[in-house]
Amino acid sequence: MFKKFFEDFEIGSSETFGRYEVSREEIIEFASKYDPQPFHLNDEIAKMSPMGGLCASGWHTCSMTMRMMVDHLMQAGVAGVGSPGVDEIRWKTPCFPGDVLSVTSECIETRPSQSRANVGLVKSRHTVANQNGDTVMTMVSNVMILRRQS
């Protein structure tokens, strides 16, 4: 079932994955439920905003990123068992309808858990980019990964 454990993560290693196409309908649906600011819902108001057009909520961008990350971790067989949290999120460039997102993740720290002998913590820096290579979001997250049984 699991193929990649805590011991398999190396500081400095990175990988790029995912492909998520952002739709106007999904932007409006997400914003209607969770972040109903006018520039996420209304084209005319969005044109007058600093974003210059209808764009995804930053929280929507986080959710799309999470989907790509979970799909990737599951496909790679990573023995992930949750997360104690995110250290940092930065929304760099608006995410517009038609954008195609991908993620590059770099392992920046690993350490065994002090409270759970069977778990290690992997800290990663994630950069989410659109089809033009523009950075849409950056995030530093922590994931609990099972340790390989000896």
Write the layout of secondary structure elements.
Elements: E1 14-21, H1 24-34, H2 43-48, H3 58-76, E2 85-91, E3 100-112, E4 119-129, E5 135-146
Antiparallel strand pairs: 1-3, 2-5, 3-4, 4-5
Commentary on this structure:
- The protein starts with 13 loop residues before the first strand and ends with a strand.
- By secondary structure, it is an alpha+beta fold.
- The chain contains 3 helices and 5 strands; from the N terminus they run βαααββββ.
- It has a 5-stranded antiparallel sheet, covered by helices on one side.
- It has one domain (6-146): Thiol Ester Dehydrase, Chain A.
- The chain has helices at 24-34, 43-48, 58-76; strands spanning 14-21, 85-91, 100-112, 119-129, 135-146.
- The chain is elongated and about 55 Å long.
User: Over the alpha carbons, how many angstroms does the gyration radius reach?
Assistant: 17 Å
Largest sheet: 5 strands, antiparallel
- Helical coverage, percent range: 10-25%
Look at the structure and name the CATH superfamily: Hotdog Thioesterase
CATH architecture: Roll
Distance between the termini: 17 Å
CATH class wording:
Alpha Beta
Total strands: 5
| Global shape | elongated
Helix/strand-derived category reads alpha+beta
Give the count of structural domains: 1
What's the SSE pattern? Answer: EHHHEEEE
Q: Whole-number average pLDDT?
A: 96
Number of separate helices: 3
